[in-house]
Amino acid sequence: MKAAVITGPRQFAVQTVDLPEPAEGEVRVRLEGCGVCASNLTPWEGPEWMQFPTPPGDLGHEGWGKIDAVGPGVEGLQPGDRVAALSFRSYAEADIAKASMVVKLPPELDGRPFPGEPLGCAFNIFRRSDIRAGQTVAIVGIGFLGAVLTKLASDAGARVIAISRRPESLGLARRYGAAETIPMDDHWAIIERVKELTGEALCERVIECVGKQWPLDLASELVGFGGKLVVAGYHQDGPRQVNMQAWNWKGIDVINAHERDPAVQLQGVREAVEAVATGRLDPAPLYTGTYTLDQLSEALDATRDKPGGFVKALVTFA
């Protein structure tokens, strides 16, 4: 099979490697595609802790496709089943996944891309956020994750205030149900606008979806007394400072919403499958760039640079 190997900082090669064989309790998935996650960008840049070359297919973890082989002891899955897989080397034409970490895709999703990991992540974050009807929810950063959370929160009856840098992102937030949008340009002006919209009460829930220091600072300021700050951004580039005095004074809960329990990760994917299959959520407008495996560097660069209208890249296989 063909697989991408990261050979150095911002360098990769497509290599022909042996097709992996599933062991006991595993399945092999012939991939139709794999989403590109922003968490790939730091390893792609080549920090000192990164080791090259990577294993074939490494960094890709948002794959979907059809099972073409099953290992011993696998029940309930068979070749031909179309699945979303929680696996970790999906920048390749095939990947191995534990049978317990795939979710069958129903016929309603035939022919449609389904990067299950990020969709499931959004549903898990939403559950952890404990959003209720009538609350005001600020979402800081409207990319793929922020857009899906905007839809879920607004459908739950919350008033969503979407805050993001790019005008097209704010338009996307409105499309997915945001009641208010604020350009993410001036720290204090944003805070004053949210106070104006909430009668000085600020927000019961604030979800930070960027993964950088300033958006985290801003999100902290927007939480009202007794509210919840939900950290959904992936902070992987170093330590953060927080205003513990303000956190103490306001008595807020701080939730790191990245799930590491495999059963919970799988629950989110199942919820996403049901929502998309029934039409409650349409993620298609969020898939704004499709690339071949040979174009992986372009997909990663687009994920970093966000050209006009960009939300999420997919690497697809013939």
Cα-atom Rg, whole angstroms? Answer: 20 Å
CATH class group of the largest domain: Alpha Beta
Helices, by number, come to 9
Say how many strands there are: 15
Q: Summarize model confidence as the mean pLDDT.
A: 97
**Any guess at the CATH architecture of the largest domain?**
Alpha-Beta Complex
Question: What proportion strand?
Answer: 25-35%
The poorly predicted ranges are none
Helix content: 25-40%
Instruction: Report on the biggest sheet.
Output: 7 strands, mixed
- Overall 3D form: globular
CATH homologous superfamily heading of the largest domain? Medium-chain alcohol dehydrogenases, catalytic domain
Distance between the termini: 12 Å
Total tally of structural domains: 2
Pfam family, one: ADH_N
Family: Belongs to the zinc-containing alcohol dehydrogenase family.
GO molecular function, one term: oxidoreductase activity, acting on the CH-OH group of donors, NAD or NADP as acceptor
Protein name: Zinc-binding dehydrogenase
Structure in a nutshell:
By secondary structure, the protein is α/β, with parallel strands linked by helices. 30% of the residues lie in helices and 27% in strands.
Task: Note the topology.
Blueprint: E1 2-8, E2 11-16, E3 26-35, H1 41-45, E4 63-70, E5 82-85, E6 94-98, E7 102-104, H2 116-129, E8 136-140, H3 144-155, E9 159-164, H4 167-175, E10 180-183, H5 187-198, E11 203-208, H6 213-222, E12 223-231, H7 244-250, E13 253-256, H8 262-277, E14 287-291, H9 296-305, E15 312-316
Parallel strand pairs: 8-9, 8-11, 9-10, 11-12, 12-13, 14-15
Antiparallel strand pairs: 1-2, 3-4, 3-6, 3-15, 4-5, 5-7
Helix pairs in contact: 2-3, 2-8
